[in-house]
């Protein structure tokens, strides 16, 4: 996938464009990408995504912003798998937030991205004060020579698929429902780092991933499958949180214990698939109690996978 940052220069060729935050890249996003690919192929244009970093709600009110489902790297990887040829990352800052709806169309869509066709979600708003809507975009398209369409919602089991719906399912520990909305298990990627080696000392060596999702969409202990180390998914058990029993961590940490696995994987980039929540993260009175609970968690995860 080709990635463009900023709009100091226009993209090399006219585009078919879909606009959105795409947090989580759930089934609604995938349907939008599929439609984009259809239109782009028919018109001979590169299918292009316009997304924003950070999320606009993180810019306007960081304290109440929703938990990130995907950091930028994860989002780009998922969009690439969905068939997106190129993505434009628009830095959401004060300058962008101050653009009127018409200025956004002129500077970003027409001059920067050279749009010929634009697809947006059915609730898309843009420009300073969120004054821009589908009707304005469509009217400006008739003047400037690009077409516009709105993508309807995707519904699963009577529920509109949305990033907020995925966050709710994760927060409630309903991994199966989150997977239904995503079209796959919830995934966190990361590089395996050196840790305190505490897990090794108590008989449960872990791969430690420093997490950039802050706040986390969920915490707890999970049955997981890991991709990136073998030609198949490897089962394990993972703790996602701040390690309260051993003094806590200033930033969230993902610790993964893989079953029947002993290779050195420091530096590897892995994808952790969360398939079942086992319990909430909790503080234990001592390391012996923690060790006993980890053994019980591992047994529960093995039972889940029928190992």
CATH topology-level fold name of the largest domain: Rossmann fold
What does the overall shape look like?
Answer: elongated
Sheet with most strands: 6 strands, parallel
User: What fraction strand?
Assistant: 25-35%
Q: Which CATH C-level class of the largest domain is it?
A: Alpha Beta
Description:
The chain has 10 helices and 14 strands. With 307 residues, it is of the alpha/beta class. The strands form 3 sheets. The chain has a 6-stranded parallel beta sheet with strand order 1-4-3-2-5-6, with helices on both faces. α5 (101-112) crosses α6 and α7 runs antiparallel to α8. It starts with a strand and ends with a helix. The mean pLDDT is 91.
Summarize the structure.
This protein has helices at 27-43, 56-60, 72-81, 94-97, 101-112, 134-144, 163-171, 175-182, 198-201, 287-305, and strands spanning 2-5, 15-19, 47-53, 86-91, 115-121, 147-151, 155-156, 159-160, 186-193, 207-210, 220-227, 234-241, 253-258, 269-279. It folds into two domains: 2-156, HUPs (Rossmann fold), CATH 3.40.50; 186-305, Beta Barrel (Elongation Factor Tu (Ef-tu), domain 3), CATH 2.40.30.30.
